[in-house]
Amino acid sequence: MSELKYLLFLGCVIPYRIPSYEVSSRRMLERLGVELVEMPEFNCCGLPIDSVDHDAMLVLAARNLCLAEQKNMDILTLCPGCAGTLRKLNKSLQEDKKLKEHINGILKEICMEFKGGKIRVRHLIQALVEDVGLEKVKEAVVKPLTGLKVAEHNGCHVLRPAKYIGFDDPENPVLLKKLIEATGAECLDYMYETDCCGAPIVGVNDKIPLYLAGDKLRNVKAVKAEALITVCPFCHMMFDINQPRIERLLNEKFGIPVLHYPQLLGLAMGFTPKQMAIDELRVDATKILNTT
User: Fold this and answer.
1) Which of 9, 109, 123, 270 is the most exposed place for a label (fewest CB within 10 A)?
2) Does CATH place domain 4-123 in 3.50.50.60?
């Protein structure tokens, strides 16, 4: 039996737009002895509609927490936005009696109730660092990526708001770097590492996010990083899927492969590029594979 078991919450974006993140995560976690249980009939975490209907967001998130309570299992998410939303509400409902009563009053209509047990919500890298442990991650590496120089992008929601997330230092994050270094690759520092990728404002302005992401790619290129490592589906879309658009807009060539962290670790574990769905990346990663 696996030492660690989680209820997997995939959210909306990953299954439909970034399946490479899911595939690589499942294989990597299985190798680490982590068991993933499919979450039954889950719904959106609620984050996308928070600015339109706050109560609807709360109820959607609470329903997912109720499903976890029914299974008596911690939730594992791959998306920082989902992790942040579910984690924040989980904490708020346990600490705010009036909010809990309000939300349960609505949930009652679908015969559900948030009881407020000890269910935890974990983002992938938090689970790797705090539950699996860095030492076990290092022990799983059979093909160290020695000589590979990469840069990391944590994104916003995996670290903020610190009051609810409580993981790493949002101003000077180091844990994703440690996970990267566990693979044998070198993680380079670059200017404005903690800046947002721009994805949250795509619905308001579709050009500003491209400029923001372009600035980050320019800074990554400046330190001669061979790849950018992400842990968020939205950040990945900005830097990988939109990289050709950014290049056209800025009239500048980057050609920087963008890998999900599980893909990087998976390669170091000995999985083939095909098993890690490297071929699904928009920016060609062949040159990276030749160095690993």
Assistant:
1) 109
2) no
